[in-house]
Amino acid sequence: MATTSDIKNGFTFKHNNDVYTITEFQHVKPGKGPAFVRTKFKSLSTGRVLSETFPSGHKVEEVRVERHKMQLLYRDDMGYHFMNNETFEQATIMEVMIENPGMMREGDTVEVLYNTEDNMPLTVDLPLYLEMEITYTEPGVKGDTATNTLKPATVETGAEVRVPLFINIGDRIKIDTRTNSYVERAKS
Q1: Start and end of every Translation elongation factor P/YeiP central domain (predicted)?
Q2: What global pTM score does this model have?
């Protein structure tokens, strides 16, 4: 059992018969009254984000997890098929367990979070940033760059990203996978 003093971002625990990971936390010690920890945590089975406040010293059941680097081999109607880069074992993971499946290409390396008790995958974490090529976008109008306007663009995986007007077909861009948003042009 862990206490609220063990809580940090990425901490995985069991709560109400589900497994959650902490996405945000704040330790609060008011001038009057006992200290408490305000948290936001995400369900690893449904993806729902919940907020809850725990009194300081509250006990939670920690879930031991391991992170494995795995490579996406292919996708079919059973799910996404990954291979462990060290042991070469393969695993099939359902699409609902992946935060942003539209951003994955065959051959990409991701981190898969495994529950050590039953060796079941919990979630798939993509790298924070990916570089992709624009396969389709409307051409920007010359001189129309005075505003911070964005246009839709399709990347090589088929996902849609909003990009500035000066981005054209064939350009490589850097994408934030947490928000599916344009960061910058990729440096050659």
Answers
A1: 67-122
A2: 0.72
Structure tokens at 124: 């798939």
**pLDDT for res 109:** 92
Q: Which two tokens stand for residue 31?
A: 């001038």
Q: What is the pLDDT of residues 16-74, one digit of tens each?
A: 888 888 889 999 888 888 999 999 998 887 778 899 999 988 999 998 988 899 999 99
**Alpha-carbon distances, residue 9 vs 33, 71, 143, 147 (angstroms):** 25, 25, 44, 37
In the three-class reduction of DSSP (H, G, I as helix; E, B as strand; rest coil), residue 21 is classed as strand
Question: Average of pLDDT values for 140-168?
Answer: 81
Extents of the domains making up the chain? 2-62, 65-125, 129-185
160-184 burial by CB neighbour count: b if 16+ within 10 A, else e? ebebbbebeeeeebebebeeeebee
CA distance 144 to 148: 10
Kindly state which CATH superfamily the domain 129-185 is placed in. Nucleic acid-binding proteins (2.40.50.140)
The H or E element spanning position 23 is strand 18-28
**Closest C-alpha to 173, from 185, 161, 157:** 185
Burial of 20 (0-12, 13-18, 19+ CB in 10 A): buried
